[in-house]
Amino acid sequence: MAGLGAGLILPHVAKAQSFAGFVGHLQARALAAGIPAGIVKAATAHLRPNAKILRLDHHQAEFTLTWAEYSGRILTGTRIATGQDKASEVGPLLAGVTSRYGVSAEPLIGIWGVETNYGANQGGFGVIEALATIAWDRQSRHFTDEAIAALRIVAGGYVPLPRLLGSYAGAMGQPQFMPSVYLSTAVSFSGQGAPDIWNSDADSLASMANYLAKAGWQPGLPSSEPVLVPSTIDAARSGRDNVQTLAYWRGQGVQRLAGAAALDGDTPCALLLPDGAGGEAFLVYENFNAIRRYNPSDFYALAVGALGRAVLSV
Q1: Does domain 19-58+122-213 have CATH number 1.10.8.350?
Q2: What is the spatial distance between Cα 268 and Cα 286, in angstroms, rounded to a whole number?
Q3: Would you give per-residue pLDDT tens digits along the chain (314 residues)?
Q4: Dihedral in degrees, nearest 10, Cα atoms 46, 48, 51, 56
Q5: pTM
Q6: Which residues of the chain does CATH 1.10.8.350 include?
Q7: Closest listed residue to residue 74, CA positions, set 217, 256, 314, 274
């Protein structure tokens, strides 16, 4: 079967529906949604469950890393140096994007670097094959809906079917947008043609900025910043949900570092101790939640902020 390498065997999992039956359902939904029959046939007629995708989806890494371990994998010297080269290369473009969307450069560089190493690691799976495989295996309406969105991308002439490539889970391009997010949020920075988040740095950065702007990004406010806390700090007061003012945290002995953004004392923020008392400490602001809309992980949002700061601190 297409997509199955030598020696690969599909997992023996009982399904409520055969793959052929699932594809028939997908085709019927696509036709009902107004997607032309020729595109539906071209995209789905030869679909088979992809064993490599199933293996990757079934064996995702357990999320048991500490912040020190996670950040050590993300905030490498190589990734920071690559980011500095890219930031220098796209400097005028980055300035134009930040000016247009009101989103600072740090989260854009951070997301770009964390998601795809600045576009270098986008994934080479057929998006519709990936989404169909996972939708069938998980019996997932969400992934089925994303497969329909991917068909809309092809039907709309945004991307030819052979170039609709992404991760094993169907995330696409340099920003790793799911198809529905591409349709709702991706933009052409020049205003001409379809958004090309695979090959265009301009469209990729503008699309990420548009995402954060729609998520409520507030200009002039950081997402997070490292701070010093006294050994007597009550760790029970930490966490995203315990939002206080900056003045309150200063009163608790929290010290901001040199070069931190000038902020009013009544600025809302929360204290994060990702590895508990004795580990690194951060103040997180409202923009932290905008990054978490991209990926709902505190570690991810902290890493995005930290990578952006490291790259642009020179």
Answers
A1: yes
A2: 7
A3: 233 333 333 443 446 689 999 999 999 999 999 999 999 999 999 999 999 999 999 987 667 899 999 999 999 999 999 999 999 999 999 999 999 999 999 999 999 999 999 999 999 999 999 999 999 999 999 999 999 999 999 999 999 999 999 999 999 999 999 999 999 999 999 999 999 999 999 999 999 999 999 999 999 999 999 999 999 999 999 999 999 999 999 999 999 999 999 999 999 999 999 999 999 999 999 999 999 999 999 999 999 999 999 999 96
A4: 90
A5: 0.92
A6: 19-58+122-213
A7: 274
